[in-house]
Amino acid sequence: MYIAVGLVLLCFVVLAVWTTWFRQKPDAPPMLPGFLPIIGHSHHLIGDRKLLSDPDDCLKLANTCYSKSYIYDFAKDFINNGLITADAATWKVNRKLLNPAFNQQVLDTFINEMNIQARNVVSNLKNELDKKSFDVLRHIVSFTLSTVSRTSLGLADEDQKIIDTDYAAAIDSIFALYCDRFQKVWLHLNFIFKWSEIKRKQDRLLKILHNIMIPVRYFCKFKPILDQMLQMASDHGVFSDEDIREHLDTLVAASYDTTSSAMTHMLLAIATYPEIQDRIYNEIQEVMQNKDDDFTKHDLQKLVYLEAVMKETLRLHSATPIIGRKIDVDIKLKNCTIRANSTSIIGVYALHRHPLWGPDANEFKPERWLDPSISSLLEKPALFAAFGIGKRNCIGRKSYSMLMMKIVLAHIVRQYHISGDINKVVCEFDIVLKPVSGHHIGLKLRS
Ligand code: HEM
User: Fold this and answer.
1) What is the pLDDT of residues 47-56, one digit of tens each?
2) End-to-end Cα spacing for the chain
């Protein structure tokens, strides 16, 4: 009886506090459907979130707040001060130091390795020929991991093997574990998490990952990204061994799932539209003069239609449909004010279908990227946010990831005719939006 009365009284007090202190301010953004007094949307997850889809608002937010939502802290034990998870102050310093490691001259030296890895995929795909369909994702995942780790670490073959097997398996498991924790809201609280089985499993995986990556610096054979970091460490007295390990793990972690998912969608898009596939093939044959040579930097620059198809796939099938930011200060947007200490979500999916893209925004039309009017459209840079927006965008965006994906796609289309249907794909959102079904394609050797 006393407990019931106590609970009712408590409810009155909480409601009174809410209505006086936390009531929606007149300039607050509209709430998403499903909002409840006091607990916000926490019955969906935790906390009260705003989803933004106006390009100017999104850019303003991305360039005002560099802090990530607390969800990114789940990976702190793994990549701590790496760019993805670093707090805003550390990130600013590190991003400035690391930007030069991704300059065009460095990346040009990766083209040879990327061609080698792409030819390996083409060769492995021979085992899949003439099947009605097969799961292409696993081939793409292994291509991405081999290419990124080879170009970032520059290991000799025998050392690389451990990355291709043990490291790949551990990183896959740790991503699955972060998703598991994300979905179990009670495990967001550290004091519960630290006693959980997931935490024990995480510790075991971290040990494996750290033991592989820490000695890597001593095996480095050529001039990849690792070498640039070692140079910075000695020139500027920055980056301890542990910092370097975190940055290398970050590069692999940031590229692994995103690039695999993007490339799988690109192959599926190419498979779905035969006239688009023919046009890509003809472009490749024309640029390469029907030869089976490796693609050089100049050849790649001429594959403009292939690039348009890649961008259009990233627009309609973005691997990162949302980006979360922690709001540090009040931000005045066009029609509302976002208050400090909340979380906001940049709606990449919505930006990519914004009415400014035109009445055909939902249609797959690579030609839009070749239309001269695209440059005036992209004066609002947030309209294309596949690689994030603002200063804390993807460090590997244009040159690294577009280069890697273009090379492998060009090799595959040159050898094989691809069949499949992107409209049958069912995706699941874990760390990125990934195809979980329907990512099956068929291949036939071109005559
Ligand atoms: C298609 C492939 C890729 C996509 C779609 C993609 C997408 C993104 C997005 C959306 C962000 C911003 C995340 C946020 O603000 O929370 C990001 C950040 C990042 N990406 Fe990528 N990425 C791709 C490939 C790569 C590759 C190949 C690398 C490395 C070589 C890479 C390294 C990074 C890093 C280090 C960050 C953190 C940047 C920072 O905070 O300064 N990404 N990526």
Assistant:
1) 555 678 899 9
2) 83
Strand 343-347 to 49-52 pairing: parallel
Kindly tell me if the per-residue pLDDT of 309 is higher than 90: yes
Mean pLDDT computed over 408-430: 91
Whose tokens are 């102050």? That residue is 89
| Reported confidence tier of residue 222, pLDDT bands at 50, 70, 90 | very low
Residues having CB within 6 Å of any atom of ligand 1: 68, 83-84, 91, 95, 148, 250-251, 254-255, 258-259, 262, 319-320, 323, 386-388, 392-396, 400-401
Measured distance CA(255)–CA(102) in Å, rounded? 14
What is the rounded average pLDDT for all residues in the chain? Answer: 86
Residue 36 lies in a domain: no
Split into its structural domains, the chain has a count of 1
109-158 pLDDT per residue, tens: 889 999 999 999 999 999 999 998 898 988 998 899 888 888 877 776 77
Whole-number Å distance, alpha carbon 388 to ligand 1 midpoint, is 7
Residue 180 domain boundaries: 43-445
Whether 412 is covered by a domain: the verdict is: yes
Question: Which ligand 1 atom is at minimum distance from the Cα of 405?
Answer: 1
| Chain centre to alpha carbon of residue 43 | 27
* Residue 4 maps to a domain: no
For residue 225, give the 3-state DSSP assignment: helix
| CATH code for the domain of 259 | 1.10.630.10
